[in-house]
Amino acid sequence: MESQKLRIYLTVCLLLLISASILFGFVYTLTHQNTNETTETTKNHVVRWSKAEARSIANVPWKTHLGETGATTDWQGQWSFVFFGFTHCPDICPATLYTLSQVRDQLKNSERMRTTQYILVTVDPARDTPSQLARYLIPFGKNFVGLRTTAEDLNTITREFGVAISTAYGDDKKESISHTTALFLINPDAKIQALFTTPHDATFIRQQYEQIRTDYETH
Questions:
Q1: CA distance 100 to 10
Q2: Which listed residue, of 71, 103, 213, 214, carries a Cα 20 to 30 Å from 46's Cα?
Q3: CB count in 10 Å sphere of residue 79
């Protein structure tokens, strides 16, 4: 049993290292795409791009937690925080969604609160049916959306976001999924405007978000 736990621990550590490397490569590529524009990186776990540098993403089809069909282009016209996770995740996923609910609450009953959605893209579409996503999101309250797509389209969108997903199995055949834990901020053009790495702090994210929106709206 101890050897099994050690193998699982080492596997998870390796997968997290791979995930971090892929995310670093994603950030490095974006921040070196255009030296004529300003990319702002702070020590507090956020990378922000100018409005002109925001990265386009592929238009893939989704099914929501309510069973409705849609696509990435539906993100246009509002701001979205996007997190890749899954409902059987034991810790980081519920903790991150709770942090996002705090961000929403800090925005209070403002226009910015009403025009911001919080999206969980499942990395486990085989188990995360729309009804499963709907039940999972209930505790986090309004403005939360669960999305799932096919395995093929999931591979497409995660590559564009720089999100790594890895699956490992223990001797008991129990599945363990590791994934990138960054939060992505999508602007009303449905482009990546910023990303927040861990640890996630609700007050800091809300402050950065309001600054980003102000900069976007005045340029």
A1: 30
A2: 71
A3: 19
Token pair belonging to 119: 């999206």
Neighbours of 13 (CB within 10 A): 11
Check residue 20 and give its pLDDT: 43
CATH number of the 2-217 domain: 3.40.30.10
Q: pLDDT for 70-112, tens place per residue?
A: 999 999 999 999 999 999 999 999 999 999 999 999 999 899 9
Which H, E and C letters describe the chain, residue by residue?
A: CHHHHHHHHHHHHHHHHHHHHHHHHHHHHHHCCCCCCCEEEECCCEEEECCCCCEECCCCEEEECCCCEEEHHHHCCCEEEEEEECCCCCCHHHHHHHHHHHHHHHCCCCHHHHCEEEEEEECCCCCCCHHHHHHHHHHHCCCEEEEECCHHHHHHHHHHHCCCEEEEECCCCCEEEEECCCEEEECCCCEEEEEECCCCCHHHHHHHHHHHHHHHHCC
Spell out the domain ranges in the chain: 2-217
The pLDDT > 90 percentage for the chain reads 74
